[in-house]
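Q: Can someone sanity-check these two? First one:
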Amino acid sequence: MSTEISNSKRVLIADDDAVIRQIVTRLVEKEGYKPVICNDGREAYQTLQSDADFRGAIFDMMMPYLQGLEIIRFMRTERRLMRIPVMMITSEQDLQLMVNSFSSGATLFLPKPFTPENFQLTLRLLLSNDKRTTPFKNGKH
């Protein structure tokens, strides 16, 4: 497999909760993508400053140093990062956070706790912007 193909299958994940990172990582791998893991918002920001070759990104809303919304706002001002679709995940039960996510440029919003099936469906929708892929395997919904 060439580097170009493998890089186009990478998904950036940033969450300060180790358990959530592990769950999300496994689910992303199960869908055939390569996760690139960040432990907090600052790590995600630093990664994006030097690397823009991601198929998608998944950010926790509330993280130390930089929160998910701040990272999205940065991405939406950088031409090389604008095309990366972003899923926001959060355990906060505040409708205004969802509104703020979308107004900041998030593509999708998934509240925690989520089921693996819920996450996988949302991930497929996030990454389905490529015309070569379909969000549902084998036509299943």
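And here is the second, same format, sequence then tokens:
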Amino acid sequence: MNWANLVTYSRIALIPVVVSVYYSDMVYANFLAALIFTIAAVSDWLDGYLARRLDLSSEYGAFIDPVADKLLIAVVLLLLVTVYPVIWIATSIIIAREIVVSALREWMATRGNRDSVAVAFSGKLKTTVQMIAIIALLLAGSSLPDWILTLGLGLIYLAALLSIWSMVHYFRNAYEVLSPKEEDAS
């Protein structure tokens, strides 16, 4: 167990904490849940930084890091759908994209072409907008201005559009490997 993987595991461990705090009767539960989610989201940057800085990169770390990210996002988005049913379409798009792109990366890795679907700017932009949207939606509540909810709703749908855009980008990069060769078609 190294420091980078420990940070990744802490992100997974924070998932039930976010959910429990959000649904609790605590004062400022939505603020605390948003804060814990923010810490978990920032840990995604931190584990990568530690892995590079301390030369702790490993195949296992490269596997578990995106799993932790997808678990965090999927669970918190599902929580938010129970509160804001209007986001079910955006949530479905985002979660479906994560599954499809993960499968694409895995398939490309079996072909020795994982680098062609490495994280791109479009994916990083999608993730940033998605995180801000989730934080805003977690924060939204009766004691905060309505614009926070409006911001969260707008950004989650923007994140869904960016999810589609980034997925298309990854498939475009993988096209040569995905398209059947003429000799394969016969």
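A (reply): Looked at the second one. The domain at 3-175 is CATH 1.20.120.1760 (Four Helix Bundle (Hemerythrin (Met), subunit A)). The longest helix spans residues 146-178.
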